[in-house]
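In this notebook, the sequence line spells out the residues, with the fold written below as integer tokens. This is how one looks.
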Amino acid sequence: MKHPFLLSVALLASCNAAPAPAPTKESAPAAAPAKTSALAPTEIVAAAPAADWAAIAPSDLLVMDLAPDAKGAARRVVIQLLPAPFSQGWIGNIRKLAAAKWWDGTSVNRVQDGYVVQWGDPDGEDKAKAKPLPAGLKVVPQGDYESSYVQAVTKPFKEFRPWPQLSQRDPQPVKSQPKTVDEFADLLGGTMDKVGDSIATARLGDGYAPIIGFSSGFPVGAELKPKEDPRAWPIHCYGTVGVGRDYPPDTGSGAELYAVIGQAPRQLDRNIAVVGRVIEGMEYLSSLPRGTGDIGFYKTAEERTPIHSIRIGSDVAGLPRYEFLSTESKSFASYADARANRRDSFYIRPAGGVDICNVPVPVRRVPKH
């Protein structure tokens, strides 16, 4: 990818597209509205050409095998790790932990309803009983909860064009290509920018981030301030995987991980390390019994779900290949717009906007030919 730092947006806060105008009294049907031929988001994804899908390298997957369920069925959870520049210190630690087979024999220790599932060493808080960590793990600074993408936004835009159907604002003419952070910041609002092979929105954000969009297939928030280093950070959505930690200045090693199983806890953004997302097997985490102790921790060892192994995908024999719908593709742009403005026949009134976590990036197994 030519511009890994760029917020590839096929849209979000900018998916505040104005709903289609209501029919006039003369044109309104006497009975129920006629069915529309517009495609639903799932239909757009199904019709996406092979060229719009991006492969996920097995080395970028974390594969967790839980103990079989009560009926003896296997339970495998597949996690896609975040690409650079985000959270690479913690992800480097995770790779070392997986290579050392450190998680083998640990367990799921916490399931808090509507919040997270958390796993790791159940005795990790007891220094006398805690499982020794492998050597060479990095202590990651708090500043790495965010990343700089100044190198991307300060490069000249190869193309700039308005995308008015994704905005309620009237696009303003662009007299010159933005070349600096200040110039880029001046253009925020109501337009879509394209840099090389990446699509980025410069629209408003939400209650947690001034700008929101997608970077390399992951939801991202960003903040641009003139004369300051622009910052970007990964966002907590359903299925997001993060690093458990103690009170600051502790940032966690990566040995304690959690997955979001409830309403997106966006207040955690920039306060804790996001390292990936669950792409398969989420049902095995979200359906676990809730913990009855404080904040969902299990009170007894018997309640915990054992972890048989956690490995990097390239070390797992027979693992399927996976791919995601590129957030720089035309298909994703159409998909995100459809999530913001449902025009398929079930819906009566398009919402005219969408929360970024309600535009989950489609991931699938690579089809067999």
In short: The chain has six helices and 18 strands. The radius of gyration is 22 Å. The longest strand covers residues 305-312. The chain has a mean pLDDT of 80.
